[in-house]
Structure formats: structure tokens, C-alpha cells
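Internal tracking record. Fields below are filled automatically when a chain is submitted to the structure queue. Please do not edit lines marked as system-generated. If the sequence contains nonstandard residues, flag them in the REMARKS field before resubmitting.
Queue: standard
Priority: normal
Entity type: single polypeptide chain
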Amino acid sequence: MSDSTLPGYPKPPGGSPDFPALEREVLDYWASDDTFRASVARRDGAPEYVFYDGPPFANGLPHYGHLLTGYVKDIVPRYRTMRGYKVERR
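SYSTEM-GENERATED OUTPUT FOLLOWS
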């Protein structure tokens, strides 16, 4: 017996989820709620963290190394935000 068939557990939804539709729904909600701006504004008065982001591909055609740089440019500001800093994205 799997956990999903035990009393008190919800039954799994039938069929396959429509991930593109779910993503649109979430993005529309975030846009209507102005979630991102509110998350930055909520940190007014917190210490600021500045992350200087250089040009996207300053040294030629895109390659695998650019992906790694892109991850860092996304992860570091998110991490600092979660640690309580005010991180403006421009």
C-alpha cells in the first residue's frame, strides 16, 4: 500500500499536469500581486548588498562557461536576499 492510498492522504490528480499553463498562472499571479517589487521593498532599512553584473558575453560566442556564470549571477543575489539583505536588481 502506498502513502497516497492511506486515509488522510490526498489522491494524486488524474492525467498529466499542464506545466506551461501552471507556469503562466503563477507568473500572472506574481505580476498582478507585484510580488518581486514587494519582496525588495519589504527589506527597506536592511543592509544593502550590491552585486555588479558585467556584460552577458564580453568574450565571444556563448559557451558552457557562460551558463555557469549565469547561475552564479542568479544564485548569489537570491541567497543574499534570503539572508535578509536588500538586493536591488537593475
